[in-house]
Design brief:
The structure is a homodimer. Chain A is an alpha+beta fold. In chain A, about 30% of the residues lie in helices and about 25% in strands.
Chain lengths: ~240, ~240
């Protein structure tokens, strides 16, 4: 046995204290002109009966180390299991890893948080499963009244801050708007995500810059509005 | 004993397979007009004698679950132990968590990667410690020739991409420039980070926008240059 093989064999025989690793999902959409987050009601302790983010433990597996589940894979599996949403039709991105001791009363749990954006037309098709007894879209403005389990309110806050920061310089709104939209429609979506109405003049200037940068383009056809027919636009690419 | 307490007691007695959790550090600075990353030579298997990112396991602890080390704490400790740098004088931010099965030949290891920016005047004061037999700043342009251990080249690539993306819309260059700088000096730093020279006209337009947005401001005094005295500027705030 080589020096390295002997080292690995000896190493694996040792038993270090290890944390559990989970994924948690901040799933967002726009319904009724509100930015909403998808929460599940917990079937089990801890925080039984309270609302919390969907999520669960990464399956490490007991077989060869090459066979365990990857983090993205765990996030997609939990999305499907607990909310019924199709991971193929949802934009999912890693957000941040939270690992403070004591954040879970059971044991040391380090959680890799993801955020997901769901197209508003798919939002009604959610269904509780797994450890969730119920699933519901909540206005992000009322979260603090819900007393979420764990540090999940902090995780939602970080997702909101990430998405709000990205609105200005990425295509992140792509999944929250229809395929084509007028300028006031996109301004409205930005206002909903930012939680405050956008000034039309300032928004128009940003809009023109995105057009000049090639992030947006004019789409065919005009939209009938209450005043004169309005030009419609679309994102050139999905996200970034 | 309450229903919840009984649940927790039973839960903790179970033994699930758990991964190990580590932190890895992508530490960057500018030396001799090159963007450089700090690597350590590994004293132990696996990848013994090869260059890799500084890092190590998060100390979970065997005591009450409230007492283990937090992720940021582990990152600061490893920074100090393996490189001798003072965590108080270095900008450190969580980057991304990598957890693919098989990325470490010893066992399943999920690593929370951080990136750090070191002021060029502090860069010479590094000293190998812990599991590192040597420590050295390498030009990021030659990394692929070094054959780093683990998936560390992929981790460095993600750090570079994150920092390059942030140059345009944040104060991330704050830690890579002197306290005050001329426009060509800042342009030069951007060129080094991006790995290609910046067009002076385009850069001047971006610079004027940052001034208008209040990210930069004029600093007192003028700098003697080879031509006429040049205005100097500074960032209004450290980072964002």
């Amino acid at each position: 046995m080589s020096d390295e093989k002997a080292f690995l064999t000896a190493y694996r025989a040792k038993d270090y204290p290890r944390p559990s690793v989970a994924v948690d999902l901040v799933i967002l959409t726009i319904i009724d002109a509100q930015l909403r987050v998808l929460l599940v009601k917990r079937k089990e302790h801890p925080f039984k009966g309270q609302w919390a983010l969907p999520g669960g433990f990464v399956r490490v597996g007991e077989g060869p180390i090459e066979q365990g589940e990857d983090l993205d894979e765990a996030a997609r599996r939990e999305l499907k299991e607990e909310t019924g949403l199709d991971p193929e039709r949802v934009y999912l991105e890693q957000l941040f890893t939270f690992g403070k001791a004591g954040r879970d009363p059971r044991m040391r749990v380090i959680t890799v948080a993801y955020y997901a954006l769901v197209r508003p037309d798919l939002a009604p098709f959610v269904k509780a499963g797994g450890d969730a007894s119920d699933v519901e879209w909540f206005d992000v403005a009322v979260l603090s009244k819900l007393k979420l389990g764990f540090d999940h309110e902090e995780i939602v806050e970080m997702a909101l801050s990430r998405i709000r920061g990205k609105l200005e310089y990425t295509n992140i709104a792509f999944d929250l708007v229809p395929a084509t939209f007028t300028i006031p429609e996109l301004r409205h979506v930005h206002g909903v995500v930012l939680g405050k109405p956008m000034d039309p003049g300032n928004f128009r200037r940003s809009f023109n810059r995105w057009l000049a940068e090639g992030r947006l383009e004019v789409a065919p056809g005009k939209r009938i509005t209450s005043s004169k027919p309005a030009a419609v636009y679309r994102f050139k690419r999905a996200r970034d």
